[in-house]
Design a protein that fits this description.
- This protein has 407 residues and is α/β, with parallel strands linked by helices.
- The protein folds into 2 domains: 154 residues, 3-Layer(aba) Sandwich (Rossmann fold), CATH 3.40.50; 209 residues, Rossmann fold (3-Layer(aba) Sandwich), CATH 3.40.50.150.
- Strand 14, helix 11 and strand 15 form a beta-alpha-beta unit.
- Helix 5 runs parallel beside helix 6.
- The radius of gyration is 21 Å and the shape is globular.
Length: 407
Amino acid sequence: MYHCQICTHEIEPFISFGRMPIANGFLMPDQFSQEYFYNLIVGFCPECKMVQLLEFVDREKMFHEQYAFFSSTSSFMARHFGMFAEKVIQGFLAKVRDPFVVEIGSNDGILLENFSKRNIRHLGIEPSANVAEAAIRKGVKSICAFFDENIARQIVSESGHADAIIAANVMCHIPYLHSVAKGIKLLLKSGGIFIFEDPYLGDIVEKVAYDQIYDEHAFYFSLQSIHYLFSQYDLEVIHTELYNVHGGSMRYYISHKGSHAPSSSVMTQIDKENMLGLHQRKTYELFRKSVEKSKDQLKQLLLNLKNEKRRVVGYAATSKSTTVTNYCGITPDLLEYMSDTTPIKQGKYSPGAHIPVRPYEEFKANYPDYALLFGWNHAEEIMAKENEFCDNSGKWIVYVPKVKIIG
C-alpha cells in the first residue's frame, strides 16, 4: 500500500508503465549496462484528489550538471514566456517600488531574462548546473540549488521578501511540495503573488496524453488538489487561466489568504473539474484503458510500416518520448533514429530503448517516409517549418489524442 505525498491517505495505483529509465537520461553505449531503472506507477488520492507517482527517483539523478533540457530551444515558448512576464509586470509590479521577482526552476533564464532586460531585481533558483550557467551568461542572476524552506529563508535574509514568485513547468517536478509551500509562504511579501503553470491533469486525461507521465513529473495537478495543498499554509488560489502550451497547461495565481479577492475563474474551474470527474477514481480507470488501447495501436502501426519496409524516424528526442518508446516497446528496428536539435543529446542513445539520437541536419538531408512526432505539444510550430518534408511525400505519425497518420 502506498501513501499520498500530500495528505498521507492510503492510495492504490491505477496504472503502471512498468520498468522505466530516467526520461532525460540520454547515454552512450558504454553506459548501457549501468543504466538506472525504476517502476513508473501512478495513483489517485481520494482524499486530496492529487494524482501522483507512487515511486520517486532521487532528484540528483534527474537534475544535474548534464541536464539535457534547455527551454530556449523553442521560439514559441520564448514568446509565451515573454507574455507571461508582461502579465506579471503589468498586473502586479507596475506600482511596486523596486520590485523583486524570484523564479523556482529557472532553467536557462528564458522567463527571467524578460525581467533582467528591464532592470527588475530578480533571482533564479535552478538545480541543474549547466542550464543555470547558461542563464548567468545571459545576465540572469541565478543560483544552483533546489528550492525549499531553507533556501527561501536564505533569500529573505540576503535580498528581502519577493513581490512575485513565479514558476513554469516546475512545481509538478517536486515531490517535497510541503517544504516548497512553506518556503513560498515565508518568501512571499504580504501583498505578493505566486504564479505558476504546469501541464493540466484535465488535458492529460481528455487527450490520453500519457507521455506527460515520467520521472520528473511527480504530480499531475487539478485545481482541487492545488487548493487542498496550499490552503494548509493559509495560501489561496485567487485566479486560474488555461493555456494551450505543453499540450494544455493551467496557470495558478496564489496569494496569502485574504490579500487578494478571488476571481470567478476559481469556482468556474472547480465546476468544470467536477464535470470531467477529476475527483473520481473511475475516471482514471477509464484513462488506463484508453492508454492501453493507444499503446497497442501505435505499436501495430509501426510494425505494419516495418513490414512495408518504410523508413520511420522520431522527431524530437523529448522526455516524453522515453515513456512512449519504453512502454510501447518501440525499439531501433521500428525507429531508425531520433532527430533532435539539442547538441547535448546528439550522438547519444535514447533512455532504455537505445535508439540513436542524430542531428536535425540528418533529417533534412535524407527525409524518411514517416516521422513519429514526439514533440506533439509543439506540433503547430514544428509542422509550419517542415513544409519541405511534406512536399517530399513525408507523413507525420501522431499519438495524441489518437494514433493517426497526417499528410
